[in-house]
Structure formats: structure tokens, C-alpha cells
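Hello,

Our lab assistant flagged a job as stuck in the queue for most of the afternoon. It eventually completed. Since we weren't sure the result was trustworthy after the delay, we are filing this so someone can double-check. Below is the sequence as submitted and the structure that was eventually returned. Let us know if re-running is recommended.
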Amino acid sequence: MPLSEINRIFDERRKELAPYGLTVERWRPNLMRKSDRHNEIELNFLQRGSVTYMLRGRRYAIRPGRLTLFWALAPHQIVEIEGDAPYYVATIPLTRFLQWKLPAAFVNRVLQGEVIEERSDAVIDYDAALFARWLDDVATADVPWLDLVLLEMEARVRRLALTSALSDEEAGLQPIDDSRSSTVERMAVFVAAHYKHAIQVHEIAEAVDLHPDYATALFRKTFGMTLSDYLADHRIAHAQRMLATSPAKITEIAYESGFNSISRFNAAFKKHCGCTPRTYRKQHTSRA
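-- returned structure --
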């Protein structure tokens, strides 16, 4: 069977943060017993059925015919499926995505964890044809074809970015230049790899050889949030996912998510989510 016709399923033995690189594959819908995360931009395109992710503590249903994009560094886990039709998944290295110089407002939304969905019904057939072509081209592994796929991906994502609600000026953001992209990416990856531990902002800054004040300012200028908030966001998202998908005790979840006391966990959770962890669990497990 040609590689382009193989339908993949998630490998639960996969090492956390292991890179996918540039890929275009067909996946068979299946529930994931553990989350995945990797430092690529992920595109999903379904022609039939739906899959629902638990992503950053929220459920996102990927609808048929709607190209969907998100930054997969955040833990994501399929918790619900409808139908068994294969669907397309593409991954784009974050460094390549940042090199495209897309509108800063759009990039900021992606880096802050927003799931971006195509709004128009007019491009469904276009997207289906694109993914089918990309699948065959990537399977060849020939450099000229891979270069062409990246050019077409850039054009498609740029088209998606044009539907963004906010302009750069309205969002008060500046484009990410090459000198900043590698540094902020390293900070983001460091947080993603260590948020379960008792790390502090100064340790994140040290990891990229920057003064803590400068690292904080650079990160905020790029991501639109402080390093402290970004760290807390990862920890809360991890806790939300565990509350919704595991029977672990709330105290265990607090420590597993990187908090060093249950009181700090409860305070941070209520600040971010507007409810207690116990209430959140009741609301979300009732829907599972």
C-alpha cells in the first residue's frame, strides 16, 4: 500500500515533545487515552464526521469542511469522535511558520492558544484538493515537491490569516522578526517542557541567556502576555485536562500541574476559570 494511503492512529508510546516536522497524513479517528504535544502548527481537515479535542482545558469540535489551525505545543487530546472517516492532519514547524511573516495579530492569536477555523464554505473543495495533493507530494520526500508544498501551505495559511478579526494596529502588536522568533520560541518550549516543575521566571530567562526583565518584556511584546501568565496558563490547562479526563484527586492534580500548594492552585484556578476545580470537574465530566 502506498504511504499516502495509510491511515495513522496516535501512538501512546510517543515521547512527549518529540517533533513531527513537516508532515501531511491521513489519520483514523480514535479516542486518545493521553494527550500529545509538539512544537508544530497543526492543521486539521475533515470531510465527514467530527473530532473533539480537549485543548487548554476546553473542548473544540473540529467540524467537517472547515480547515482548523492551532499551535500543538499545548497538550491536546481527542475525547470524542463522530464517524470513522479518515481525516487529514498536517504539521508545520513553528520556526517555518514564524518565518512567513504573517500578520502579527493572527500570529499572536495562534501563539496564545486560539484555535483558528476557516469561516467560508466556498473553499471546502479547494481545501480537499490541496490536502490530497500535499499528501502525495510529501510522501515522495523529494525536496522540490516539499518546497512547493511549503509555498502552498504558506499561501493557504496567509489566506486564513486574512479572515482574522483584528488588524495588527487594533491588537497593538508588532510583527515578529527573525532575531526575536528563535528566542521567544525557546522560552515557550522551555515553559512547555518544565511547567510541571517549580520553575521561576528567572530560570526561564537564564535558559535563553537573557536578563529576567528583558526576557519578560520581549515575551510580552511578542505573545501579548507575561511569562508568569504564560507559565500559569500552561499549568491551569494541564489541571483542566486532568480534571475532565482523569479520576485523580484534586490535590494530586494540583501538584502534578506544577503548583506547590493546594491554596495557590485553588486561587490561580479560580482566577483563570472563574470557578473552583471541583466545580469545573462536575461541569465537564457530566458532558464526557
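-- support follow-up --
The delay was a queue issue, not a problem with the job. The result is valid. The chain is about 50% helix and 15% strand. The chain has two domains: 3-169, 178-285.
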